[in-house]
Write a structure and sequence with these properties.
This protein has helices spanning about 1-20, 25-60, 75-105, 110-150. By secondary structure, it is an all-alpha fold. The chain has one domain.
Protein backbone atom coordinates (compact mmCIF):
# COMPACT_ATOMS: atom_id res chain seq x y z
CA UNK A 1 0.00 0.00 0.00
CA UNK A 2 2.82 2.38 0.83
CA UNK A 3 4.45 1.90 -2.57
CA UNK A 4 1.14 2.23 -4.43
CA UNK A 5 -0.02 5.33 -2.57
CA UNK A 6 3.36 6.86 -1.82
CA UNK A 7 4.49 6.48 -5.41
CA UNK A 8 1.50 8.47 -6.60
CA UNK A 9 2.13 11.18 -4.01
CA UNK A 10 5.74 11.53 -5.20
CA UNK A 11 4.66 11.71 -8.84
CA UNK A 12 1.98 14.34 -8.14
CA UNK A 13 3.97 16.45 -5.68
CA UNK A 14 7.46 16.26 -7.20
CA UNK A 15 7.74 14.65 -10.61
CA UNK A 16 4.92 16.42 -12.49
CA UNK A 17 5.87 19.97 -11.43
CA UNK A 18 9.56 19.29 -12.08
CA UNK A 19 8.92 17.89 -15.56
CA UNK A 20 6.63 20.71 -16.67
CA UNK A 21 8.99 23.34 -15.26
CA UNK A 22 11.94 21.73 -17.07
CA UNK A 23 10.50 20.67 -20.44
CA UNK A 24 7.87 21.93 -22.85
CA UNK A 25 4.37 20.53 -22.94
CA UNK A 26 5.05 17.93 -25.65
CA UNK A 27 8.33 16.62 -24.21
CA UNK A 28 6.95 16.78 -20.68
CA UNK A 29 3.75 15.03 -21.68
CA UNK A 30 5.61 12.22 -23.39
CA UNK A 31 8.00 11.84 -20.45
CA UNK A 32 5.13 11.73 -17.95
CA UNK A 33 3.36 9.13 -20.10
CA UNK A 34 6.40 6.88 -19.59
CA UNK A 35 6.51 7.70 -15.87
CA UNK A 36 2.86 6.71 -15.42
CA UNK A 37 3.31 3.53 -17.49
CA UNK A 38 6.10 2.54 -15.09
CA UNK A 39 3.96 3.47 -12.10
CA UNK A 40 1.05 1.43 -13.47
CA UNK A 41 3.35 -1.62 -13.72
CA UNK A 42 4.34 -1.13 -10.08
CA UNK A 43 0.63 -0.96 -9.19
CA UNK A 44 0.06 -4.34 -10.89
CA UNK A 45 2.82 -5.84 -8.72
CA UNK A 46 1.31 -4.19 -5.62
CA UNK A 47 -2.11 -5.63 -6.49
CA UNK A 48 -0.62 -9.12 -6.84
CA UNK A 49 1.16 -8.80 -3.48
CA UNK A 50 -1.88 -7.37 -1.66
CA UNK A 51 -4.34 -9.91 -3.05
CA UNK A 52 -1.91 -12.77 -2.38
CA UNK A 53 -1.34 -11.62 1.21
CA UNK A 54 -5.09 -11.24 1.78
CA UNK A 55 -5.74 -14.72 0.34
CA UNK A 56 -3.00 -16.21 2.51
CA UNK A 57 -4.40 -14.54 5.66
CA UNK A 58 -7.89 -15.76 4.76
CA UNK A 59 -6.63 -19.31 4.21
CA UNK A 60 -4.57 -19.29 7.43
CA UNK A 61 -7.48 -17.93 9.45
CA UNK A 62 -9.76 -20.71 8.22
CA UNK A 63 -7.14 -23.27 9.26
CA UNK A 64 -6.98 -21.66 12.69
CA UNK A 65 -3.35 -20.63 12.28
CA UNK A 66 -4.09 -16.91 12.64
CA UNK A 67 -7.07 -14.98 13.86
CA UNK A 68 -6.44 -11.81 11.88
CA UNK A 69 -8.40 -11.29 8.71
CA UNK A 70 -9.31 -8.07 6.98
CA UNK A 71 -12.18 -6.10 8.46
CA UNK A 72 -15.23 -6.02 6.22
CA UNK A 73 -14.63 -2.60 4.56
CA UNK A 74 -10.99 -3.36 3.71
CA UNK A 75 -11.67 -5.85 0.89
CA UNK A 76 -14.28 -3.49 -0.54
CA UNK A 77 -11.83 -0.57 -0.62
CA UNK A 78 -9.08 -2.76 -2.07
CA UNK A 79 -11.49 -4.06 -4.73
CA UNK A 80 -12.49 -0.49 -5.60
CA UNK A 81 -8.81 0.43 -5.94
CA UNK A 82 -8.20 -2.54 -8.23
CA UNK A 83 -11.18 -1.62 -10.42
CA UNK A 84 -10.00 1.99 -10.66
CA UNK A 85 -6.45 0.85 -11.48
CA UNK A 86 -7.87 -1.42 -14.20
CA UNK A 87 -9.85 1.47 -15.69
CA UNK A 88 -6.74 3.65 -15.69
CA UNK A 89 -4.37 1.03 -17.05
CA UNK A 90 -6.54 -0.69 -19.62
CA UNK A 91 -9.41 1.63 -20.59
CA UNK A 92 -9.05 5.38 -20.07
CA UNK A 93 -5.25 5.66 -19.77
CA UNK A 94 -4.48 4.18 -23.20
CA UNK A 95 -7.28 6.26 -24.72
CA UNK A 96 -5.79 9.39 -23.17
CA UNK A 97 -2.31 8.54 -24.50
CA UNK A 98 -3.70 7.98 -28.01
CA UNK A 99 -5.51 11.32 -27.89
CA UNK A 100 -2.35 13.02 -26.60
CA UNK A 101 -0.34 11.68 -29.54
CA UNK A 102 -3.06 12.77 -31.94
CA UNK A 103 -2.90 16.28 -30.46
CA UNK A 104 0.89 16.39 -30.75
CA UNK A 105 0.72 15.22 -34.38
CA UNK A 106 -1.99 17.68 -35.48
CA UNK A 107 -0.86 20.20 -38.08
CA UNK A 108 -3.54 22.87 -38.38
CA UNK A 109 -4.80 25.03 -35.55
CA UNK A 110 -8.32 23.60 -35.92
CA UNK A 111 -6.98 20.03 -35.73
CA UNK A 112 -4.84 20.90 -32.70
CA UNK A 113 -7.74 22.56 -30.88
CA UNK A 114 -10.10 19.64 -31.51
CA UNK A 115 -7.44 17.08 -30.57
CA UNK A 116 -6.42 18.92 -27.40
CA UNK A 117 -10.05 19.35 -26.35
CA UNK A 118 -10.63 15.60 -26.72
CA UNK A 119 -7.37 14.82 -24.92
CA UNK A 120 -8.07 17.12 -21.97
CA UNK A 121 -11.57 15.70 -21.47
CA UNK A 122 -10.17 12.18 -21.21
CA UNK A 123 -7.09 13.29 -19.29
CA UNK A 124 -9.28 15.02 -16.70
CA UNK A 125 -11.09 11.73 -16.13
CA UNK A 126 -7.79 9.82 -15.79
CA UNK A 127 -6.42 12.41 -13.34
CA UNK A 128 -9.61 12.14 -11.31
CA UNK A 129 -9.28 8.36 -11.20
CA UNK A 130 -5.69 8.63 -9.99
CA UNK A 131 -6.78 11.05 -7.24
CA UNK A 132 -9.68 8.73 -6.34
CA UNK A 133 -7.23 5.82 -6.03
CA UNK A 134 -4.95 7.97 -3.88
CA UNK A 135 -7.87 8.76 -1.57
CA UNK A 136 -8.90 5.11 -1.40
CA UNK A 137 -5.30 4.10 -0.63
CA UNK A 138 -5.07 6.60 2.20
CA UNK A 139 -8.43 5.37 3.49
CA UNK A 140 -7.28 1.74 3.40
CA UNK A 141 -4.03 2.57 5.20
CA UNK A 142 -6.01 4.50 7.85
CA UNK A 143 -8.25 1.45 8.39
CA UNK A 144 -5.22 -0.79 8.82
CA UNK A 145 -3.51 1.62 11.23
CA UNK A 146 -6.71 1.94 13.27
CA UNK A 147 -6.96 -1.88 13.49
CA UNK A 148 -3.27 -2.20 14.47
CA UNK A 149 -3.68 0.36 17.25
CA UNK A 150 -6.58 -1.55 18.86
Amino acid sequence: MAVWTGGLIVIIAVVIPTIFNSFGMEQGGRFLTRVFKGYDRIVVVAIIVLVSAAALRFWLSHRGAVDVVMDRPEPLVLTAMIVVAFLIGFVWGPESVALQERAFAAHTEAEKKAAYDAFFRTHTLVRGLYVLNLGLGICLMAMKIKRWLK
